[in-house]
Design brief:
Elements (H helix, E strand, L loop, with lengths): L1 H25 L3 H4 L2 H21 L7
Helix pairs in contact: 1-3
Length: about 60
């Protein structure tokens, strides 16, 4: 169960980090600064990673 707990903790931390990123980006002029494309690409890749973690979590054996 420890590995499953670690995966849950990582998923929770990803959610917290992405919320902080969203809040930080709210104060920036993203179109002027040119961060919009990079932000969107990062958010998409992190979301894909999170979904992959959620999908594989049930198959990880507890040690």
């Amino acid at each position: 169960m420890a590995r499953r707990h670690q995966i849950d903790a990582v998923i929770e931390d990803i959610d917290k980090a992405m919320t902080k990123l969203r809040d930080a980006m709210a104060g920036l002029q993203v179109r002027t600064a040119g961060f919009k494309k990079e932000h969107d690409e990062l958010a998409r890749k992190v979301a894909d990673y999170k979904v992959d973690l959620e999908d594989v979590a049930p198959y990880i054996k507890a040690t």
